[in-house]
User: What shape does this take?
Amino acid sequence: MIITLPWLKEHLKTKANESEIINQLTNIGLEVESLRENSGELGEFKIAKIIKAEKHPNADKLKVCEVSLGGKETLQVVCGAPNARDGLITIYAPPGATIPKNKFKLKIAKIRGIESKGMLCSENELNLSSESEGIIELINKENDVGQSYFKSKSEKAIDISITPNRADCLGIRGIARDLSSSGIGKLISIKKKKFKQNVKHLIKTSITKDKNQGCMTFGSCYIRNISNKESPKWLKDKLIALGLKPITAVVDITNYVMFDLNRPLHAYDSDKIDSEIIVRDAKDGEEFQALDNKKYKLKKGMCVISDKSSILGLGGIIGGTKTSTELETKNVLLESAYFLPTSIRKTARELSINTDAKYRFERGIDPNSIIEGLEIATELILRICGGEASKFVITGKNSQKNKIIKFAIDNFENLIGIPISTNEAYKILTSLGFKCKKNKKDLTIEIPSWRPDISKDVDIIEELIRIKGFNNIKLIQPERKRDQETLNFKQKLFHLSQRSFASKGYLETVTWSFTDSKVDKQFSKGEKEISILNPISSDLDVLRRSILSNLAIHLKKNQDRGYEDISLFEIGPTFFGNTPGEQQVVIGGLKSGKVSRKSWIEKERNVDVFDIKSDVIKSLIELGVPEKDLYVSDNTKNCYHPGRSGSINLKSEKGPHLAYFGEIHPAITKKLDYKEPNIFGLEIFLKNIPEPNRKNRQTKKSFQASDFQKSERDFAFIIDKIFKIGLLENIIRNIDTSIIQNVTTFDVYEGDNIPKDKKSVAINITLQAANKTLSEQDLDQISKKIIDVVKEKTGATIRS
Amino acid sequence: MSELDKISSIFDAKIGSAKSKEDLQNLKTEFFGKNGKITQQFKTLASLDPQKRKEFASNLNKIKDDLTNQLEEKSSEIENIEINQKLKNEKVDITLPVRPYQQGKIHPVSQVIDEISSIFSEIGFSVAEGPDVETEYNNFTALNTPEDHPARDMHDTFYLDENKKILLRTHTSPVQIRAMLNGKPPFKIIVPGRTYRCDSDQTHAPMFHQLEGLHIDKNITMGHLKGCLDYFVKEFFEVKKIKMRFRPSHFPFTEPSAEVDIGYRIENDKIVIGEGDKWLEVLGCGMVHPNVLKNAKVDSKKYQGFAFGMGIDRLAMLKYGINDLRAFFETDYRWLSHFGFDPLDVPTNYRGLSK
Assistant: This one.
């Protein structure tokens, strides 16, 4: 909502200066978004004539225009508007000017190789309207070429952001009322000028009794024999200051009343109305040509104003071309109606129309302002255009009864924390237009018809504290006290895993919860695809089923930027259904490229599956899973290389699934076209990480270490090629846990001297007893036992 | 000059010119070997008369000790020279690069969530969560958002079904409803989380992060709300004093509602938070609307309280001078390395939030 100070001061008697008023507006909840000079900047925008418009040699949709500002010389301007043509009078912005809409400062530029000095503007670019198709077409302005378009030295425009509940402040008077209530001035009462109403109202009006009728009241005045014209300077200046384009006096007057009193009106050329006005429900498929030069196809449930033969307007939203007023219009029908917000909103949304009237009606116009609107606008039309007016005819519900609330004054202090006196509350509410009666401990409050937002005690409390001032609320220091744990176990895990992976060289990233279905398909395990009804783009069309999908997309982008040896991780939700809660938290990581690329000291090598396995295992241990409980198997899923990937479960193959890790399937890296296809991934499922038993956590086992000499023995077993070394190590570990302290595989060999289906595994075993130093004899004995048990359980022989 | 003095002076001359361990060994043999000069002297002891023997033996032992010490000293001297020589040959160029390593980082959003959690933990809030996929009821209706509110438009909300009953939450506020329905008052929670809006341009991302706060108890007033946010803003921006203003606003789920601005100024192209004559909006808040309490089955005659919501990404941008919101989600290796935090840099109350 834009206002100017002089206009505001027509309603508010005040000595306050500009900055006091701006501050106070913000303080009472009418936030000032910007304050801008109108004339200074806009003086540069000149009326110009296109002498010649030719097709741009290098672009089909652009034209090269020769533009005259009235002098002998012409300017060359490149323009993309379809309506740029020879002889058109339009508005020209020179280099250095700032376009009001996007605040873009113009420079001399080469567009597709042709120099362009400045630009030709659309109404939208100048904030004149939302019309952005093509440049402005000025009519009868041939003689003004070269002059500034925004001639008047208009006032500063104050742009106020009005919250959706404050429909009453979409008129300047409403804003003045709020300001006066806050003590910054006095609301001036409206002086209505009398006029004669002795002509017969020639147009019959009716509202049909449709189900869901969107119009409650339709008031009108018939005015004949006017001479419509360009508006007088005072009126044009007012509208231009708000960023509007003056049209003709009749239209300008309706706009003026709308911005002044928040009372939208509409004027019909009554000679074009076919006998009568019928406010009715549209029929499915009915067509209507609106003033924005678009044809709309209507649906049942949309409230239309029609005559006997066709639709004249969408009630409260936009008028039609059929009955639009022009300079030649002689007789008008002036409409002042009340349309239901829900109906307006629904229709406008379905047709995607936004107008100043729609904006106001959908928020709620004062239903009791119909007559006032007719009075003020009719008087203005008679004054400016002459003519004679009829009596007002009101069809439908005549007026709405005001709501009444009984408000206990103590409720204010209970919610806000500071008291208010009955007198102060009375004063504030009365100045806002509420009618109050003081009782002992409460107020009986009648809510004015322009405040549809007020219906409860809290609404009244909000009005009171808003005007009294939020800065008067005394703040109460919070108590530094904690009765409940800040984080639960899963939340602690979340935070810990972030730090755990970052400390292993992974960069944490946050990506969107949605992704490209084509990529997600590669990484999912066949969970149901969850598509978004209205995605922002077709490559962000589904909720991710795998945490790897977005990482894969972004890894590629980084590789394309030349970063190939990187590790990324994200911890966040993946989805397996579209019911709330069908999601789980997963840690995902990708690692690509080489280790020690181009190092003077280390030998360069490819990242391999044991790098990613090591990261997964270390992190799981850091997250509190004991190493002995990590059961590694080669169970895998499709997105991984079938031979170089695996799973980790808790305790056994059937235990809760903790993680996947492995090389990304070469078919995927090929499909996604990676520069560096050596990529490894990991997924850890946080929900399956067990919460440690509190007792175990608090009482660690007592510390025991042997003081006796430890010994090491190396063994080389010849074993079946397919036998898993992890299992072999476990078998050895369990032979005698009191003596076998550590088992490590230090070599695996296949090839010469070893049978084809066998491999040689070299294992180092640390032996140590708690009660004595092991003798040669003891060592021989345990070695023999190891060899025997391994042979028995695996068929392996010792390599001689 | 006695025989012993002669031996001593010969030794002195020779040890002075000894250069290596080998020279020393030779010297040792010459004096202490089987036929060494000192050994020889000991052999004469037996032939001396007792009176003379005692005196001579004492002198001889003194000289023996003296020469032995000198040999040892010389020996370690030579050893040092040899070691130094050896070490000199082992010198490497210490300015060569270290073994390659990757430096991991924590995303600024995660870091700021940790900071905020730490701040609110201090005054007794605990962290609650809710699902990203929500019902239209929890996201709008229960939060007192009218049936035809513009926020429900397809332009603003991502829907997952044709009937518009299932959506991606547009704010973290539905977790208020979930928390209240699942527990008994008092409630004192913060809710960090992902939120979604159908909006994508330079300053809007289709996904962003919000932090919701809810404190419901008996007698919680707007004074408590002011105190809580005043504490938070000072702690978060790590300043002692801060200019702050509560400005009336409107949200369907709170009444009265306010937006909170903090003062700032620009100094050397950098934003200085806390003072100055410019205002910056940082969060929205208000007293929970009685309709919301009713929908969440909380007795609004007994209980009342406040709620607030803030943009986590925006707070991160302000505190750490990050300009572009979109970059948060683009996973650019360079950006993550530049704005990310060291994993050991864990925000805590006792150590301080940031380095």
Q: What stands out?
A: Chain B touches chain A through 90 residues (CB under 8 Å).
